[in-house]
Amino acid sequence: MNQHILSRNNVNITGKGTQAMIFAPGFGCDQNMWRLTAPAFEKDYRIILFDYVGSGKSDYEAYIPDKYSNLHGYSRDLLDICAALDLKDAVFVGHSVGSTIGMLASIQEPKHFERLIMIGPSPCYLNDPPEYHGGFEKEDLAGLIDMMEMNYIGWANYLAQMIMRNPDRPELSKELEESFCSTNPLIARQFATATFFSDNREDLPKVTIPSLILQCAEDAIAPVEVGEYIHKRLQHSTLRFMQATGHCPHLSHPDETIRLIKEYLSSPMNQEDGRING
């Protein structure tokens, strides 16, 4: 077991099961964001939690700007964790860009993964008419990145509210805002650029691992059109529409998130092409 890798990514392991279940955070978040969801699986799985280099309690000295200028640097770290723990046939749960990072890792080394569970995934955030509606114009995303540089705290407040989309529960947006603000602004800006300007649409047909797509309602980051686009291009995929609103159902609606994941994991492995309203 490579202790350097486990320390670098602040890997924490809990649970009583033998099959591994890996939880990958979204942009600007650390493993604490899974605290309402992951414990529900500790009885049946070996829970693997980690932080991206540059986030949470990871080793910030391990941050190499060139390596993390694109999502492949993060997927390489995920594969390093899998190798260090000798993981095979793990259940991978990724939120937002964490889903893409897991997808890229599964294409490179599928032996580590049995199923992919993607919460609010998006292979491309930019609109590319007429075939693709990612949700953002290039100018909008460029403006967000510029705002990070000019007014980081204002950016964190604005984006947190856009992502969470639960105005009646302001404490959720506040937690996300504080998570953003706990990250080095330079690292956050580079991760944001790598995330929001990535285009992994051509990677979708390369995925061989069965997958679940959890699509939230009123998701400003990954609209319904994106979930449907992924479902059509991912072989062996199941699409579930959630009642949860916003982009972080594992925080805002953990019970529904847990229920849908458990239903999927209890379904036969050969189930595919499912499209169900949750």
TrEMBL record:
Keyword Hydrolase: yes
Phosphoprotein listed as a keyword: no
A Pfam match: Abhydrolase_1
GO MF annotation, one: hydrolase activity
Keywords: Hydrolase
Span of domain AB hydrolase-1: 20-254
InterPro entries assigned: AB_hydrolase_1 (IPR000073), AB_hydrolase_fold (IPR029058)
Highest taxon listed in the record's lineage: Bacteria
Matches recorded under PANTHER family: ESTERASE-RELATED (PTHR43039)
Family membership noted in the UniProt record: Belongs to the AB hydrolase superfamily.
The protein's name in its UniProt record: Alpha/beta hydrolase
Source taxonomy: Bacteria, Bacillati, Bacillota, Bacilli, Bacillales
